Amino acid sequence: MDAAHSSVAMLVSNYVFPNDLHVHWSMMIVLYPYITGLVDGAFIIAALYYLFDVKSLRPVARFSLLFALAFLAIATLPLLLHLGRPERNFNMLLTPSPSSAMAGFGYIYAVSMGVVVFIVLFVYREDLVELRATSKGWLQLLYRALTFDSIDVSEDARKLDKKIIRFLVGIGIPVAVILHGYVGFIFGGVKANPTWSTPLMPVIFLFSACVSGISAIILAYIVIRKAKGRSIDHNCIKTCINTLTLFFILAFTFEMLEVFSHSYLKSGYHHMVEGLLNGPLASSFWLWQVKICSVIPLFVLGVMGIFKIKPFLYNFTAAVVSAILLLQVLIMRWNVVIGGQLMSKSARGYTEFHPEWFDKEGILAVIIVMAIPFIILFVLSKIFPFWTADSETNVK
Amino acid sequence: MKILNPSPEMDRRSFVKKVLNGTIAGSLFLAWPMGGTSLETPEEIPGIKGKEYDILNQEFAFIVDVTRCIGCGSCCVADKREYNVPDGNYRTWVERYVKGFSDKIYVDSPHGGLDGYQHARTDIEEEIRDTFFVPKLCNMCKEAPCVQVCPVGATFISPDGFVLVDEKRCVGCAYCIQACPYSVRFLNPVTKIAEKCTWCYHRVRKGLLPACVEVCPTGARKFGSMKDETSEVYKILKGPGVLTVLKKEMGTFPALYYKGARREVI
Q1: Is A18 in the B-facing interface, judged by CB distances under 8 Å?
Q2: pLDDT tens-place string over residues A295-333
Q3: SS3 state of residue B67
Q4: What ranges do the domains of chain B cover?
Q5: Are residues B206 and B200 in contact, defined by beta-carbon separation less than 8 angstroms?
Q6: Which phi and psi (to 5°) does residue B194 adopt?
Q7: Domains along chain A?
Q8: Residues of chain A neighbouring B149 (CB-CB closer than 8 A)
Q9: pTM of the full predicted structure?
Q10: Domain B145-195 architecture
Q11: Cα B253 to the chain's mean position, in Å?
Q12: E strand or H helix that includes residue B99
């Protein structure tokens, strides 16, 4: 870039290209990777139990699957709200352009959904067979379909179920990785935007997805169990926190590596990226994402890992740290998606973004979209019990 | 003076006759084909009008001569009228560059230059060394990022080299807007689909120049066929003069060239 000879001269007029004044990808595109991230992280917890036999995760294994399913069910909703012509959304499936990364979404999403649904059905097959026996009419028909019209719950059948579940989870892991890695690539593949255009983007998105999903499971598990007056499996929380710590160290390291790379390499438009992080994003990036929501949890997670803490205090801290990390990932998505667009391609200025309340991509719509999966989760809990009877016996 | 008063009946008859004759004659003059060409379009790009358009054997180029632009905004007005572009969105715009003696660059483009630059900037305190105008429009990249990222193939490159949007296919995801390094795209707030400059493809197919080129009073915007060795763009592009493209490092290979663009132009 010839014109980047003097960063001071570049920014003097704060000139924004006329078409860059409007932020085209707003809050719904912040929510979309956030939701798929929650799905991925929750699925990781289920996979650790069902595929890698991490026994201590048994209390949250089923819940994680249902949590992933509830959020996956609405993952397309923010996209539909964002599209200018949502009625044409099937064009993505019917006439996908093979050169576009985004064209793969429909297929990746469909496979993810299929895999999670089948895993849930096989995990809950015994319960569904029982429900089928006690139901009548169309409900019975529904349960017949959900149990693949099999009432065989013999030892052999259950062994086969377990094998199928392991197989499906085995497929599910790369699918989940692709689903969220792909979301990162959607941004990482935009060479016109220097804050997005980095091969680190899919990696950052993937690890932060695991962070948000695991945090959500920890927080939801503790809150629901407390609300229902049931005990909390300390061992399970400990395993979750250890896993969360690992993924958060990776996520935070890569997030910082990206910033460090920009400032060290001083590649094209680096002055704009630095100006963005130290200007319009100074508060949301450095203060909120890095200092409050990353450094503090990192310190707390370190303390939780090194020192022996009483279960009650440990669980309480786990819930608090999970809540902060959920916020961290949401702010990170905001800083990437909206923050990245504040920088005009004129390389001479920054635009502003002010969220609206009643827009179809506004704050109210965000609240509604985020509330729907919890309603779905509540409905699912009526059919698929979150907690197994024997997981109760594990409770100390 | 005494006024002669002829028979009122005679006068009325002759008047009606005259009016009728005049009306009929006038109507015939307007309706009868007189061999004139007033209703036909002129031939602004030689070799297209009246012939079958060989889409596979065409190549066009657009040259912006920065040294000629006076910032009148006529091109922006013509474009807005040609496409009924909603306010606040721009298929083309003109930027004003001001360079001070400290080498600081001041750029602005109020309303995309639609009103013309009638007044000098008053907010610059230092002495001004140079000032110039830079028209912006679609770069018609040969390796267009917008085409690559469009998930439904609504944005495509036509065989004659134009990057176009199929308005019946576009889903309005705005990925192309993110991908365009030149920010020439926007989501039309009325149709909710992606829109951008087409170099007036509908006019070119009729042998007409793009609207902005036609109205440019100084010849700062030049358009023509590279298959026509007599065209101005052919002569400039094949000649010894120095031409540049915007954001060359993006690897988009634009078909829009700039003549006399300073290195500060992005």
Answers
A1: yes
A2: 999 999 999 999 999 999 999 999 999 999 999 999 999
A3: coil
A4: 145-195
A5: no
A6: -70, 140
A7: 10-389 (1.20.1630.10)
A8: 99-102, 189-190
A9: 0.90
A10: 2-Layer Sandwich (3.30)
A11: 21
A12: strand B93-100
